[in-house]
Amino acid sequence: MNALTITGQIMGFVAMALIVLSFQFKNSRMLFALQVGSCSFFLLHYLFLGIGGDAGAFSGMAQNALGLVFRVVIMLSAKFPRLKSPVVLSIIGAAMAVLAVFTVSSGDIVALLPVVGNFLCLGSMWTENSNVIRIAQLTVVSPTWLVYGIFRFSIAGMIVESFNIISIAVYYIRQALVRRRG
């Protein structure tokens, strides 16, 4: 492991802390804010893994860049409702599709996994319903990124997606216990 890869892994651990924490908030605004921070650090994580020698990591970097843009758009749409238009959603979805085409043309089929995860993430976050977001994360988003992380040897990526799944399960257990008591 070279210095760039180690730096990338450190960035990934910071991103991991932010994303795991995000699913513990009932408030969608806080969930999105922490996910913006996480996407920023995961973008750097995959950038450093890519320039450290794993060219396949650039797909993860690009998808995190789009995830970051999308989350910022969702957050800003509260003040600027025009951002919450189907046109904006379509533009971001089209950018994901363009990146998917480049991924396929490079022959790296595994690099399509973050694209699949991001498409579902895009749709679930568009609802701004934190329960829908959690379910999408639990069933498709985290599993696709987990497999991608295994192939990219993204230590932080593998751990974060495992933690995401556990964190969301803990959230639902906590909520069930609160409902039983209340």
How is the secondary structure organized here?
Blueprint: H1 3-22, H2 28-51, H3 57-76, H4 86-105, H5 113-126, H6 130-152, H7 155-181
Helix pairs in contact: 1-2, 1-7, 2-3, 3-4, 3-5, 4-5, 5-6, 6-7
What this model shows, in words?
The chain has 182 residues and is mostly helical. Helix content is 81%, strand content 0%. The chain is built from 7 helices and no strands.
List its salient traits.
7 helices; mainly alpha
Helix content: over 70%
**Percentage of β-strand residues:** under 5%
Largest sheet: none
* Number of H/I helices: 7
Unreliable spans: none
Oligomer: single chain
Topology, number of strands: 0
The 3D shape can be described as globular
Q: How many separate domains?
A: 1
Q: What does the radius of gyration come to?
A: 16 Å
Secondary structure category: mainly alpha
Distance between the termini: 51 Å
From N to C, what is the helix and strand string? Answer: HHHHHHH
On the 0 to 100 scale, the average pLDDT is 89
